[in-house]
Amino acid sequence: LNFKDPEAVRALTCTLLREDFGLSIDIPLERLIPTVPLRLNYIHWVEDLIGHQDSDKSTLRRGIDIGTGASCIYPLLGTTLNGWYFLATEVDDMCFNYAKKNVEQNNLSDLIKVVKVPQKTLLMDALKEESEIIYDFCMCNPPFFANQLEA
């Protein structure tokens, strides 16, 4: 597999998510294409940080994904694996539209809220409608690249 070929990486990512997690997603070639093992490792690290294995399974964990990207991969994985609720923020119009579509086509809109935020918005501005909710963790995935060629 040529990992420098965006079409090959997209095919691998979509296949792994479908076969291993039952997730169906669309990713534009013009945006960053995530690799599943690295994103899954981040989810497992968050599990360790919040004591997921030791916690009461009936306790709903809530997270914020800053800059969720077109795939919305962290919320999709966190919700599928652990039943977590996510607020996923995105500034890019194309990424926002793909993220919403990916959440909807996997029937996870009740656990993942994708919010379009203006460029240079502070996190607290995105949380105005969520002021009563207490979040357990916040995550993001720097560095930020417009596409695979910049990565």
Brief summary:
With 151 residues, this protein is an alpha/beta fold. 38% of the residues lie in helices and 13% in strands.
Write a structural description.
One of its GO terms (cellular component) is nucleus. InterPro entries: METTL16/RlmF, SAM-dependent_MTases_sf. One of its GO terms (biological process) is rRNA base methylation. One of its GO terms (molecular function) is methyltransferase activity. This is Methyltransferase 10 domain-containing protein. The protein has 151 residues and is an alpha/beta fold. The chain has a domain of 105 residues: 3-Layer(aba) Sandwich (Rossmann fold). The protein is built from 5 helices and 4 strands. It has a 4-stranded parallel beta sheet, with helices on one face. Strand 1, helix 3 and strand 2 form a beta-alpha-beta unit. Helix 2 packs across helix 3. It is globular and about 45 Å long.
Give the strand tally: 4
Question: What is the N-to-C order of secondary-structure elements (H for helix, E for strand)?
Answer: HHEHEHEHE
* Main sheet strand line-up: 3-2-1-4
Summed over residues and divided by their number, the pLDDT gives a mean of 89
Which structural class matches the secondary elements? Answer: alpha/beta
Could you estimate the helical fraction of the residues in percent?
Answer: 25-40%
| End-to-end distance | 18 Å
Q: Over the alpha carbons, how many angstroms does the gyration radius reach? A: 15 Å
CATH fold name of one domain: Rossmann fold
Query: CATH superfamily assignment of one domain?
Result: Vaccinia Virus protein VP39
InterPro entries: METTL16/RlmF, SAM-dependent_MTases_sf
Protein name: Methyltransferase 10 domain-containing protein
Keywords: Methyltransferase, Transferase
GO molecular function: methyltransferase activity
